[in-house]
From TrEMBL:
Belongs to the HupF/HypC family. InterPro entries: Hydgase_assmbl_chp_CS (IPR019812), Hydrogenase_HupF/HypC (IPR001109). One of its GO terms (molecular function) is carbon dioxide binding. The gene is hypC. It comes from Novipirellula herctigrandis. GO terms for biological process: protein maturation. It comes from the Bacteria. This is Hydrogenase isoenzymes formation protein HypC. Pfam families: HupF_HypC.
């Protein structure tokens, strides 16, 4: 399954002229393209889908979404897919 998952931005950088960030998904850190959200700052929460931050979200909504995923049994599956993709920072 491939859900859009909320995570917290831990750092921002530019790679090959592309805005990027390191995003924390429950302890799994992934590099994410930030090209669609240039106003994002460290500490913000974003929704990430297939490696792209596609929307900013507040912390309360992010936590509620993660809680719902966990209750539905979807969060563990998504976190495992993130871990398995192998590009943890």
């Amino acid at each position: 399954m491939c859900l859009a998952v909320p995570g917290q931005v831990e750092s921002l950088f530019v790679e090959n002229d592309t805005p990027m960030g390191r995003v924390n998904f429950g302890g799994v850190i992934k590099e994410v393209c930030m090209i669609y959200l240039p106003e994002i700052t460290v500490g913000d929460y974003v929704i990430v889908h297939v490696g792209f931050a596609i929307n900013q979200i507040d912390e309360e909504s992010a936590q509620a979404t993660l809680e719902s995923f966990a209750e539905l049994g979807l969060l563990d599956e998504e976190i495992e897919e993130l871990r398995a993709s192998g590009d943890e920072a």
